[in-house]
Amino acid sequence: xxxxxxxxxxxxxxxxxxxxxxxxxxxxxxxxxxxxxxxxxxxxxxxxxxxxxxxxxxxxxxxxxxxxxxxxxxxxxxxxxxxxxxxxxxxxxxxxxxxxxxxxxxxxxxxxxxxxxxxxxxxxxxxxxxxxxxxxxxxxxxxxxxxxxxxxxxxxxxxxxxxxxxxxxxxxxxxxxxxxxxxxxxxxxxxxxxxxxxxxxxxxxxxxxxxxxxxxxxxxxxxxxxxxxxxxxxxxxxxxxxxxxxxxxxxxxxxxxxxxxxxxxxxxxxxxxxxxxxxxxxxxxxxxxxxxxxxxxxxxxxxxxxxxxxxxxxxxxxxxxxxxxxxxxxxxxxxxxxxxxxxxxxxxxxxxxxxxxxxxxxxxxxxxxxxxxxxxxxxxxxxxxxxxxxxxxxxxxxxxxxxxxxxxxxxxxxxxxxxxxxxxxxxxxxxxxxxxxxxxxxxxxxxxxxxxxxxxxxxxxxxxxxxxxxxxxxxxxxxxxxxxxxxxxxxxxxxxxxxxxxxxxxxxxxxxxxxxxxxxxxxxxxxxxxxxxxxxxxxxxxxxxxxxxxxxxxxxxxxxxxxxxxxxxxxxxxxxxxxxxxxxxxxxxxxxxxxxxxxxxxxxxxxxxxxxxxxxxxxxxxxxxxxxxxxxxxxxxxxxxxxxxxxxxxxx
Length: 652
Prior knowledge:
The protein has 36 helices and 10 strands. The strands form 3 sheets. Strands 1, 2, 3 and 4 form a 4-stranded antiparallel beta sheet that branches. Strands 6-5-7-8 form a 4-stranded parallel beta sheet, sandwiched between helices.
C-alpha cells in the first residue's frame, strides 16, 4: 500500500505517475516479482483497504494448524534507507530455522511487524525464542535501529542495556529507585531498582503457553477456533453500527467479550482436566441421546467459583454468532456456550424455562391448533405478568392463524418427474418461527414463487433444533439434527432447490449440524436462504407497482455476519425490481431469538434497540430480514416491519 498526498492535484498525479512508470517497466521486464497494481482515489475504497490492513494481525492468527504467529521479534525499527538490506538479513535468520512468518509494517518509518509461526506448546519450538531474538537484536543494532519501534520494550527488557547503553540505563535505574524502590510496578520490566537482585524479564520466561499445553487435545480439536483467540481485541467494539458482540457494548465488562469468554472457557477446560474430568469431543458418540455414560464436572478448589463465573459470562451472550465471523480468528462463543451449558446443567440442574424454550419447536404444532384460544390468553396483561414472575419470560409472540394452501409434498410422485419437469418446482423448508408465528410470510413466499412461474411445495415440518443448541441440550440437539438431516438429504435427491425463510435458522443446517454430526450423518444437502434463490431468478418477469418513498433494509445480525451475508444480495434484488432502497449499518436489535423475551434481559435488550435500531425505525419505513428483529420492533413500536419477500409480494 502506497499513499500519496499533496497540496495540489498535479503534484499528486506526478508522484503517482512516477511510481506507475517504474512498476510498468518492472512488469514488462518480469522483474522484482511485480505482477500488477491498482490505483484508487475513491474514499470508500480507501477506507476498505485500511480496514483490511487493520485486521491483518487478527487474520494472521487465523492460520491453520498448531503453529501460530507469535509477536516476539515485533516492531523492529531501522532507518528507512537500510530497510531493504535489513529485511533480507531478517528473512535469512528466520529461513535458517525453516519458519513460516507474516511480515508487514511501515516503510516510511522503517518499522516491521514480523510474526514467526510457532507452536509454543512444543518445547523444541519454544526453545527457538531466545536464539532468534538474540540474532534479530544484533541485526537491528547493526543497522542502527531499535528492537522495539513502537511497543514491547517490557517483554524484551533483557535487551535494554544493549540498546540504551550503560550510562542511560543507569539513569533509568535511578528513576526506578526513586519512584518504585520496592519494585512493585511491573517488576522486571524495562529496568530494576538499584541494588535489586530481581532479573529483567526474558523473552523465554514463563509463557501463557505453559497453561495452554495443559488443555486436553480433544478440547483443542473440538474448539480450535475459540481456543486460538490471540487477544487481538477487535471484539472490544462499542460502535452502534456494527454487529460485533452486543453484550459487551452494554456491560463494557471484558469478561462479556468474545475474548473474555474464550479465555474463561480455556481456563475452565484446563482446570477440569486437572481434576481428572475427561471432557468429550463435541463431535463424538458421547452426545448420542441414549448414551448412559455421563461426565460430571468438578466443583473442587477454584472450580467452585469458576463454574458459576463462566455461566454468568455465557448467560450474557446473545448467541448472535457475530463473533464467529466478525472476529479475524473466528472465535465461536455460541458453540462453546452450548457445550459448557450442557455440562453445567448436568451438575447444577435446569430451570423450567430452559426446558420450555428447548422444546418450543416440538410444542408449536400442537399449540397452533388452539391459536384462537391461546392468543387472547397469552396476549393478556395478566398472563404476561404471570409468565414474567414464574418462568421469567415476557411479551411472547402471537401464534399465526393463517391457513396455507399449496401442493402437498409427495416424494414418490416428484421422483417420477423428469429433471426438466422438476426445474419448475421449489421446496420450502419450514422453520418453527415462520411456520407458526408468521404463516403470512410463507403465503407471500408461495405467491412470489408462483409469480416467477414456479410451483412452491411446503416440505413437512421438521424441527430445526436451534433452541436446543442455544440452551445447551446437545444430546437432544444432535438427535434433532440427525433426524432432520436424514429427511433433507432424501429430499435433496430430487435435485429441486430447497429454500428457507429465516437465515439464522437456515445457517444452522450448515454450521451447528456439522459440529455434532459426521459427514455421512449430515449428508451433502444444501438449504438456500430465500435471497440466495431469488437472486438467481429472472425478476424482469414480475410486474410490480411503483413504490414512492424511502425504504431501509435492516439485517439480522446473525445473517449479516455470516459468510452468506444477505444485504448485498437484497440490494441487488431490489435494484433489479427498480425499487430504491438503503441499507444502513446497524448492530443487534436486542432480541436475538429468545434473549429479548427473558425478563432478566429487558434492560439490555432495550438499550441495544435504542442504540442501533430505534432511530432508523422511527425515521423511515423499514423492512427487516430476521423474525426476532421484526418481533422486537413490534414490541417497542407497536407495528411490525415486513420481511423483504412480503414487501415485494405486496407490490405485485
